[in-house]
Structures are given as C-alpha cells and as structure tokens.
Automatic annotation (TrEMBL):
InterPro entries listed in its UniProt record: ATPase_AFG1-like, P-loop_NTPase
UniProt keyword Cell division, yes or no: yes
Assigned keywords, A-Z: ATP-binding, Cell cycle, Cell division, Nucleotide-binding
Gene Ontology biological process terms in this record: cell division
Gene that this sequence comes from: zapE
UniProt-listed PANTHER family: AFG1-LIKE ATPASE (PTHR12169:SF6), ATPASE N2B (PTHR12169)
TM spans (from-to): none
Signal sequence annotation: none
The keyword ATP-binding belongs to this UniProt entry's keyword annotation: yes
This protein's name: Cell division protein ZapE
Length: 339
C-alpha cells in the first residue's frame, strides 16, 4: 500500500489575518527559539570577554527590580543605583537577543518583548494613545533590534519609552552594528543615546563583541532550490507556495503588525521566481516578513535569485543597511537549515 501523499501546500496570499489590540499585545513575547533562554544557558565566547561581562551586567540590572513589581527608577538593595534602562550594542549573532529574552524571562511582573518594528507597527495599527494605554503599567519593556535609521519612528519610540518610564516601566534594548562598521570603529551606542536624548541618562550601555554564529562560515549563501514543490513535499507539517511577486503584493495589503499571523503554524514557505528588489518599500516589507519567519523558525525554500542577493547594492549602501544585512543573515539561516 502506498504511503499517504503529503498535503498540498496552501498560499500565503490566501491568508487575510486580523488581530485586536489585545491580541497584538499578547504576541509581544520572545520568539519560540528563545522560549527557554536564560543567563545560565547563554554560552559566552571566551575569546570575547565582553560577552561574559554582559551576563554579569544583566544580573545587576535584574537586582534593580528589588522585591518584584514595577521596578521604579533605582534599586534600594544596593548602594550603587541601578539605572532603569539597559542597552546591548553589538554586531549580528553575538547573543544579544538571547540575553534580552533571558532578562525578560527572569524579570517579575507584566512585561513585553518585541522588535522595534513590532512596536512601531502596533502604534501604526492602534494609534499612539491606545498603545500607551495597553502597555502602561508594565514592569519591563524589551525592544529588540532598535532601529536608528528612521528618525520619525525613532522619535516616536523615544516618546513612547518616555511615557512608560515615567510610570515606572524599566526598559531594555538591543541594536545591530553592521559587520563592516567594525573597521570604521562605529558602534551604535552613541547614535542610540543621541536619538533618545531625553532618556539617555537612564540607560546603561554595554558593547558586546564577537562573531555571528550564523555566518562563521564566510562562504555561506542562501540555498536555491532546483524544485521548490518537490522540496516542500518532503517537509513535515503545513507549507505554503507562492510566486514571489504575488507575495510582495500581498504584503502591501496586510499591515505589518499582522505578518505574524501570515506565517503562524507553518513549517515551511515556498517562493518561486525570486528577483532583485527594485522598490525599497517592497524590500522593507519583506524584511519585516523575514523577521516573522525567523521568529517562527519557518524554513524557506525558494528558486530564482538567491535570497541573500535580493537587495541591490544601492540599498545595501543606503540608510536601511542594517535592516537588509540582518535579513540576509536570517535568510541564509532559514534556507540552509542553520537557524
């Protein structure tokens, strides 16, 4: 008797998700690959002492919560004040998100964890006042991948953080420094502090050096499938198959705050006819989509142009360079199974 044939893939373009404000906020938790992240299971690279120092600094930051609850501005348990904000600065793949998730898991009270893009998308979907109302009173707000390349969104986030900090919420953030910036001596900490100038004195900044664990093989590239449908058929679990242009058109119709539902429950997505981006708007939407794929550890199977080559040089050298390089790193991991 022949084996049961695999379920035919669905299509992302057939998914039209909706989320209420409360449901959006409920999604603000660490990605599933960091569900068990802790300071104890973080493995610092001994060649980079700043990684071990970051663990110690986060333990000190946690002491600032005192006996639990909302935190307040300073710990009363130590003679040295513990600032209510901590900022982790470093390149791709050095463990910043693991440390941020570990902090979230260890902190008491009502708390939220999301990327910068998720928080700005939340404001875009619900409005500023409703977003503040939903988040206010949290003990901790974690912002992964704090973006410094969009002045408007950065000012918006600084304003949001200011209102939440005034009510006793403590804050933790990360951002990336592109690999080539290391030679320029340009880490992002000073940019971050300048952009949140009214809050800068509340943050302890930590620089974390190291290599990207996803790209220690410098020859790594995104895998291109010779037969997307056949590769999808070998995947265990629900899959989708879409033409790349159709996916981009659909992403334009769905608010980025709802991209999480586009990939919910999927084991893999298939894309045919991948091509180089000509529109920066399409490229930025795709970056947000890749973030949700990576959070969900959804495998990507694609043909056409390799997915690590879809961002043209003029985009990679422009203001959104950090976003694109992060997406490239993640696409290599998702197409090669090394995520």
């Amino acid at each position: 008797m022949s084996a049961e044939s695999p379920t035919a893939p669905g299509r992302i373009i057939d998914r039209s998700p909706s989320l209420s404000g409360a449901e959006m906020v409920a999604q603000l938790v660490p990605p599933r690959q960091f569900a068990t992240a802790s300071l104890d299971n973080y493995r610092p690279d001994r060649d980079y002492p700043s990684q071990g120092a970051a663990v110690a600094a986060i333990r000190t930051f946690l002491s600032g919560f005192g006996g639990g609850g909302g935190g307040g501005l300073f710990s009363r348990r130590k003679s040295t004040p513990v600032l209510p904000g901590i900022y982790l600065d470093g390149g791709f793949g050095v463990g910043k998100t693991h440390l941020l998730a570990a902090l979230w898991h260890a902190a008491p009270g009502r708390k939220y964890f999301g990327t910068f893009i998720e928080y700005t998308a939340l404001v875009g979907a619900l409005g500023y006042a409703e977003t503040v109302a939903l988040l206010k009173g949290a003990s901790l707000l974690c912002i992964d991948e704090f973006e410094l390349d969009d002045p408007g969104d950065t000012r918006l986030m600084a304003r949001l953080l200011g209102e939440l900090a005034a009510s006793g919420t403590r804050m933790a953030a990360t951002s990336n420094t592109p690999p080539n910036a290391l030679g320029e001596g340009r880490f992002a900490a000073q940019d971050f502090l300048r952009e949140i100038d009214s809050l800068a004195s509340r943050f302890t900044t930590l620089r974390i050096d190291g290599l990207d664990y996803r790209r220690r093989d410098t020859d790594a590239h995104a895998r291109v499938s010779a037969d997307v449908a056949a590769d999808l058929a070998a995947v265990t679990g629900p899959t989708t198959l879409d033409a790349f242009p159709d996916l981009l058109a659909h992403l334009a119709r769905v608010h980025p705050s709802r991209y999480v539902r586009l990939v919910e429950g999927l084991a893999a997505v298939g894309l045919t006819g991948v091509s180089v981006f000509g529109s920066q708007t399409d490229a930025l939407r795709f970056v947000a989509f890749v973030d949700r794929l990576y959070d969900g550890q959804v495998r990507v199977i694609a043909d056409g142009v390799p997915l690590d080559s879809v961002f043209p040089e003029d985009m990679l050298s422009g203001g959104y360079r950090k976003k694109y390089l992060r997406a490239v790193s993640r696409l290599i991991a998702l197409t090669t199974g090394t995520a």
